[in-house]
Amino acid sequence: MAVGNVVAAAALLLFLATSALLVAGDDPYRFFTWTVTYGDITPLGVKQQGILINGQFPGPTIEAVTNDNLIINVFNKLNDPFLISWNGIQQRRNSFEDGVAGTTCPIPPGGNFTYILQVKDQIGTYFYFPSLAFHKAAGGFGAIRVLSRPMIPVPFPPPAADYPLLIGDWYKTNHTDLKYMLDSGKALGFPDGLLINGRRRTYRFRISNVGLSTSLNIRFQGHTMTLVEVEGSHTMQTTYSSLDVHLGQSYSVLLTADQPAYDYAVVVSTRFTSKIISTTAVLRYSGSAGKSPAALPGGPTIQIDWSLNQARSIRWNLTASGPRPNPQGSYHYGMVTTTRTIRLASSSATVNGKQRYAVNGVSHVNPDTPLKVADYYKIAGVFSVGTISDSPSGGGGAYLQTAVMGASYRDYVEIVFENPENEVQSWHIDGYAFWVVGMDGGKWSSASRQGYNLRDAVSRYTVQVYPNSWTAIYMPLDNVGMWNVRSENWARQYLGQQFYLRVWTSSTSWRDEYPIPKNALLCGRAAGRRTRPL
């Protein structure tokens, strides 16, 4: 029984992204030319200004294979500076290409910049998004799909088709007005809706939450989902009737089309909100007799324990190969002694009469020169290492500061995200994947380590922290650079809940870190300097 396309319904956008043209041949280079423009979009039935890539909303899908080099020439036709960041792509030895304010100079209006990326030793499901100002609220995002090399076994039969699904909350208000609200100290309020826009065999759906503020739950009427991959890690193949997807997270599920030929609903709804928004798209079988007579599947709403138990049930597949032939479990992360514990507590505060958010009492402010560029040229006065501590301040309030934490290359750190607030947090670390070894309610203490999963915790790059709870991760600092650690709630990130982790070595070898790209844009106090000889 074949499945047709997923048909969009109002109020929730399930983005079925379009595949980009790939370059054939043995040379692992794939070339893309993107033009970024404003254009009219109507995701919730109301015309508004959106950000398009090559005229598309959402943008083109990037398809790649492990270790491919991606050459992406971006032309900025907006009237604002613009950058794209690559959620989950680790940018090995090359944080200059990360595309956030602390690493990369913006592409000026009318200008262009060519990103040179490599998906080194990675497989799985990722996405890209505009990182500056509040552009993410207008679109400009798309899916990234990194396939295993042909000689590397995958722990499930090849699916009949593979669809990226980008889901997220949405505001009808223009992104410039949303930015003005935040700059004025006002809250964004509840989103106007969620977006779905999209499409006897098994199909793979790669689901990413690209929204601004809301955790979501997804389910398929009359079908279960088998989880097979989380953010580059093959998982134990557990079956779920519905799945929580928190901000910035990505999952791959298999769905077997083994039901009578009807149209089945794909349902997405908000989680942990006082008001529940939900909407549907249609999973259409070929030869469909019409709408399925079955009731729409209900989903969880505010239940924290349900979500926590589901998160704990997601386990690493120890015997499956990842991007390399050796099994994922050959790296015994739980047997390595940690060298440092970093505790990060989120907070909400009023600073100078306006709403701000902070980490360990520091609300980050971007300087006039990207931190990585200033570091490379040794420009004094842009930032200081150690302006954010590795444990909570203990006092109330927050202060504004360019927040940079120092760390040593090849350290093995334990990071504990602490959430004393009453809303779910979602945290992302650029440049890395990490093992989620524990999460629980209450306050973290050294005794909490007794409950850590040191055998088959999943490795991923974005993790949730439940209200009045903590989440602990282990992470090897094996990637030199300046890396953004941020809230995936975009208003909190914009208003300071982020910092940069400077992973440093005294070595100047290219084996440890690449030099600044030859084509790097230079701005701020680095303007007028030279990169390196062409």
UniProtKB/TrEMBL annotation:
Signal sequence interval, chain numbering: 1-25
Ranges of residues in domain Plastocyanin-like: 36-149, 162-288, 368-506
Keywords attached to this entry: Signal
GO molecular function: copper ion binding; oxidoreductase activity
Stretches of the chain forming a coiled coil according to its record: none
Family of the protein in this entry: Belongs to the multicopper oxidase family.
PANTHER family linked: MULTI-COPPER OXIDASE (PTHR11709), OS07G0510900 PROTEIN (PTHR11709:SF90)
Name recorded for this polypeptide: Plastocyanin-like domain-containing protein
